[in-house]
């Protein structure tokens, strides 16, 4: 895809939240001559009111992905936005799914392909991928019986760390100090 000279390309950061520093960083680059737009689904997101060239309130991507994509494409065409940089995890699989549709309109979305996203969004799949590719990783369990077996065999010991298989950040993450707390 030919998007022209990178320095003159208009860029959109979606779901900016409070990450106005991304806009500041791009705008402070003396070689960047394009415009920086931001969007969010929450009108109180502080990043909407940063030193950008315009902002858009969009529907939540997960509520109606097709409406989100259709709205986003329309805004990109209207404002001549050629690059979309998604900021939050929930929208990444949606934008990846519609990546070709954006591309047909001359818009480049900075997301990986669906296969990579599916691995990265699943901690167990990511652990398997890392081991398969020679990276040292922590022991993980999906099955409590396998965990108990290794615990009683003294291959592992408390405390352990419990985290949701899917999700971002430290959502519902907790330190577990004994079997009673785990069960």
From TrEMBL:
<dbReference type="InterPro" id="IPR048764">
    <property type="entry name" value="PylC_N"/>
</dbReference>
<protein>
    <recommendedName>
        <fullName>PylC N-terminal domain-containing protein</fullName>
    </recommendedName>
</protein>
<dbReference type="Pfam" id="PF21360">
    <property type="entry name" value="PylC-like_N"/>
</dbReference>
<feature type="domain" description="PylC N-terminal">
    <location>
        <begin position="11"/>
        <end position="109"/>
    </location>
</feature>
């Amino acid at each position: 895809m030919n998007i022209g000279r990178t320095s003159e390309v208009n860029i959109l950061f979606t779901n900016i939240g409070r990450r106005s520093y991304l806009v500041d960083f791009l705008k402070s680059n003396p070689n960047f001559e394009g415009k920086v737009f931001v969007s969010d689904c929450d009108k109180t997101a502080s990043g909407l009111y940063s030193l950008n060239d315009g902002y858009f309130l969009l529907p939540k991507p997960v509520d109606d992905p097709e409406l989100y994509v259709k709205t986003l494409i329309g805004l990109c065409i209207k404002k001549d936005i050629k690059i979309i940089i998604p900021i939050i995890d929930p929208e990444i699989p949606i934008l990846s799914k519609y990546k070709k549709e954006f591309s047909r309109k001359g818009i480049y979305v900075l997301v990986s392909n669906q296969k990579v996203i599916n691995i990265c969004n699943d901690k167990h799949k990511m652990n398997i991928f890392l081991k398969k590719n020679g990276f040292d990783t922590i022991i993980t369990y999906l099955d409590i019986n396998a965990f108990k077996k290794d615990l009683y065999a003294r291959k592992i010991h408390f405390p352990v760390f419990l985290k949701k298989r899917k999700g971002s950040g430290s959502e519902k993450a907790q330190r577990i100090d004994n079997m009673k707390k785990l069960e």
